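Researcher: Here's my situation. A collaborator sent me these components and asked whether they could plausibly form a single complex. I don't have experimental data yet, so a predicted model of the whole assembly would be a useful starting point for our discussion.
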Amino acid sequence: MNKKNNPLLQQISIYIHWPFCLSKCPYCDFNSHVRTNFDYKKMISAYISEIHSIKNFIHDSPLEIGSIFFGGGTPSLMPPKFVEKIISTLERYWKFSDKLEISLEANPNSVDLVKFNGFKNAGVNRLSLGVQALNDKDLKFLGRSHTCNESLKALDIASKIFKKTSIDLIYGRPKQSTSDWELELSSALKLPINHISLYQLTIEKGTQFFTDARDKKFIMPNENYQNTMFNISNIITEQAGFTSYEISNYARPNFTCKHNLTYWLYKPYIGIGPGAHGRMPAKDGGRVATRMHSKPETWLDAVCSNGHGIAQKSAISAKERATEALILGLRLTEGINKKHFETNTGVKFNDAVIASEIKRLEEKNYIVNSEQKLKLTKHGRPLLNSILSHIVAYE
Amino acid sequence: MTKLSHIRNFSIVAHIDHGKSTLADRLIQVCGGLDDREMRSQVLDSMDLERERGITIKAQTVRLKYKSKDGIEYILNLVDTPGHVDFAYEVSRSLAACEGSLLVVDATQGVEAQTLANTYLAIDSDHEIIPVLNKIDLPSAEPERIKRQIDEVIGIDSSNAITISAKTGQGVEFVLEALVNRLPPPEGDFNRPLKAMLVDSWYDSYLGVVILLRIVDGEITKGMNIKMMSSGNKHNVEQVGIFTPKTINVDSLSAGEIGFITASIKDVSDCEVGDTITNDKNPTEEALPGFKATQPVVFCGLFPSDSAEYERLRESLSRLRLNDSSFVFEAESSPALGFGFRCGFLGLLHLEIVQERLEREFSLELVATAPSVIYRLTLTTGEAIELHNPADMPDPTRIDTIEEPWIKATIIVPDDYLGPVLSLCEEKRGNQVELTYVGNRAMVVYNLPLNEVVFDFYDRLKSVSRGYASFDYQIENYQRSDLVKLNILINGESVDALAMIVHRNYAESRGRALCQRLKGLIPRQLFKIAIQAAIGGKVIARETVSALRKDVTAKCYGGDVSRKRKLLERQKRGKKRMRQIGNVEIPQEAFLAALKMDKE
């Protein structure tokens, strides 16, 4: 295989969704399913078929894979040889970038630890561990099946195997004080990691927490409190040498998540597996949105009869591309590079935003607008949603 | 042609729920107007709204045949009148079509304010009044006490009142006999030129405008060319008929009779209640007395929630007006609410009915501004103007005097609740005219500024009396008053839709209450929002909505950006439905709720 970087090649990312979990966490509204009996053998061949079919949907221009991400669900439940099979199938169809990043999300359960070497041998070079909290009481509240010690142990092993390690933490939990969070985050930053994602606990419809919160089984911290925690997170991570490069993501220099940057920079990606979303490159330079069937059984049946599990496939209009690129791009601390924006969406930057609102928000110190870039200030970042609703021109 | 001596024309005066419609149903049934199969409850209230709210909006008539004990078959014409003060003029015209009334009083409840007002209208029309005590079958009925009340409060002899139960039918035959024996037959001359009174009219999608009329003199026939005496407009009669309540065509209607005609009239505004109809070829010399062109009393702005619905609102208003010429509308534009209409109504109930019909029958979503009355202004130049909309109030320096309409309100209330009712009237700038006790109930008469009554008086009265107070009013006169325009400013910009005219002494408290209420209704935004109440340039109240601090999803969606995009698109569409005042977005609910003040 030729692994030399070719500047003419368009880079693409691959997202692989493994939809199974051992148990459903009460806050989770992702496409995850608990199954005791499932024909996993059939499953793996379905992934292979789907990759094959998708390959044929994409036009002929040469592509290079820049990142692969195994997400879920709990992809660490996959046998390493499945992971290997998927990676080798991808490699059969597309060129791999020599800086290829292959991430896999893992739960710190003891059962999965033994597979870490197997994942590495399959090609995985970045492990993201779902630690979520560093005390057992909150882990129990969050419905996690692991303890804090198991997390530390898993991380210790992972850091010896993988060059890049990341953890997820959920903050803004009921009864969590700001000083609790300061301590917890500070100790997390001392762990052997070079990347951290800090997600705020949100109550989503259809989850157990939604019902519980409605029934007042717990009280969520208020907006001011959450905002303070957000600010604290930014300060503490910075002191520990992590750069906040996106609203909820922090990395040591050169350890940003290449895969997630694909989304935020609005570069094309392919989604494989139940419930996966894709933004595939279209011939005209635009994007084709794909969404796979969510339920594993439905997806599997669809792949068996059609070769793929696509539930919806639609062209994304130029205006929609522009809006999506704004939603995603402004999450980045760097903001949006207007030239890249125009290349990626085919829309003039100034057409996609409302100039008068930009000016007004700039005067109020919410955003910085230069010739090359539009970005949020520190002051504006916690208000991204409202700011978007002001500046986005298309609806 | 029916002999005059064999005709009796009557109406029924009653308070809501005292059994008017049930009695009407029973009379129709006994006289065989409908068989049991056709009978349904409250036959005469044909609009859903009428049946639901227990009120009559349009007059209806029924011709009944009754064979009396004297062996003669009589024609009994029941004119069912609208039963609300807003329609006092319409009621007076319906009553003018009859010679007598049944005064129906609930024997468990007694006389209410509305009964009183309508009875006086009936007395003014020289009616013979037959008191009827209904619901006599209920254990809580107290006929003797209620009779005394009729004597004392209304001042009519109740010694020969008839006790009935419209529900069971008990005593209904005595009512029929009393109609025949105690009411005078109509007067009129068949040989004179046609003179008929227009009792009511409505638009029927098959027949065009249907006119309900009472023939005073002469005869109306199919094919006759008739003339409306107020406008001089002429029409050719296509159909002459009666309601039994089934529609039955007849060849003619003559002196003393009540029925309907159609004459391919397109617009009810050409059919004003109380107008005199005559034969164009052989006209009567004199119109009937008492005709008044309808005058709106209460005004408000109606705006579509969705500005794209403006044209549909215009069409709907025009269509409603086909049936109800007593409300008026003209285009209005407001910086806050966009394009809409300034509408005039006969009263608050009328306003509510029109608004409800627009929402129900035409599926429109509306934003209504605070109801306002007509102020009479004299400018320093000496020019006199009428002000229908607070937003149009001239600069105070240009105003010499302002006058506002006052009403005479009659409230009947159980004495347990008298205290709160009196303080409410005082709070509303009222002057007590009269206070009479009748048993355990009090009748209070107050002079009140209409401006205060349209604000929230009904709701407050209902709540302080637990719904036991009944209320009626008539416009009394105009009086000079110290009124000011209260402006609401959002971030320094005045919001026309929230402007109101209030008495100077109340401006501050009302301004403060409104600011507080708005604070709770305007969602926090990227910027701090100042809400101020001001009179002229002087700020009298202020509230602040602090800026939003956190509004971001610190969460990863695994590449599903469609969901976020759709959310944002929906949010942007939602913003479109908000009203933009300067840089502040105000949800419509804020306007609606802000106008319903003092309810807490």
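Model: Some features of this prediction you could bring to your collaborator: Residues 321-391 of chain A form a domain with the Arc Repressor Mutant, subunit A fold (CATH 1.10.10.920). The first strand of chain A starts at residue 10 and ends at 18.
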